[in-house]
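The authors assume throughout that readers already know how a fold can be written as discrete tokens. For illustration, here is how one protein appears when written out as sequence plus structure tokens:
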Amino acid sequence: MTKDLLEKILSTIDDFKGKLKTLRLTFGLKILVVIAVLLTVSYQLFFVYVQPDQYGIKVVRIGLNRGVQKEVYHAGLTFILPFGLQQMYRLPKGIQVLELTNFPETAAAAARKDRAAHIQTSDGFFVDVDVSMLYHIKDPYLVFTTIGPGTLFEDNGIIPKAEPALKETLGKLTTEEFYNSPMRVKKAEEAKAQLNTELNLKGIEVDQVLVRYFKYSPEIQKNIEEKKLQDQMVFTNQSAARAAKEEAELKKIVQEGMVIAAVEMEKGKAYVTRKIAEKDLYVRKIKAEADLLVQLAEAERVRLKNESLKGIGSERMVGLKMADVYKGLDLIILPSDGSSGVNPLDLGNTLQLFDVRKGGDK
């Protein structure tokens, strides 16, 4: 065996090994693909996904418990038998909107739309009313068994009942009463109550009936607008008159208040003046009483002094006072002889000269 032949054999063996490895890898991929297909088919056949905003109603067509199942399924996967043996129907869980309007472009994109309600008023005129109805499925089992699956809750449920209820309630209004918002809202609430009376038995509950817009024929609309303008002018004039009256009343009240304030100010000033006068009178009275007491005390002092001077020793006191008088004289000339002579050394003679009695003499 030559070297070239040996290399050729080894090369052939390597090629065979590579092909064998590739064949094994391809077979494994095929198995994975088959398993994935089987899982996908099984999922599609045996499971149904109920979304979070949906109710699920299962219908069984074979077995002892055939028919619509009372159990309501919520969000998640649910096992069913394929090939029509069991079937899952889904109904919306959230708020639904029915728009009755002749202008679909003004309605919500996701809402169910129908023509506007054509209503005859109590005084014989016709009006087209745009209404938004908000409702939800309260009992999906009841809806399914009394109305049906899919969108039949709209087609056979609320739509056939909406316009008759509006005609019966809003039709009680006159042409002008349609412009009265409180009355219009009240009749819309009556329509909601009437709809719920009928639809609650089928598992549907109406949340709101909202009158968005209404329109009469052009001629009637023009007449109504003209009359409304006239009424508004009357109301404007009445309001202006009431405003003038209220303004005059306000001025009167302000003037009366100013007069009352002035009177009260004068009363206050008079009160202050009176209190000042009372204070001055009181002060003068107290001062006069005090002066009287002082004068009485002074008179009593003089009286007591006089009384004391009339007592024993008063004559001597006078003599002493006269002696004090002598002290203030620089020179005095008196006769020293005869019956009227004065001898300063003769105290008795001096006392007799001033008519001062001796102590104890009366």
Remarks:
- The first strand starts at residue 47 and ends at 50.
- Helices lie at 3-46, 140-146, 152-170, 181-199, 218-309, 314-327, 347-353.
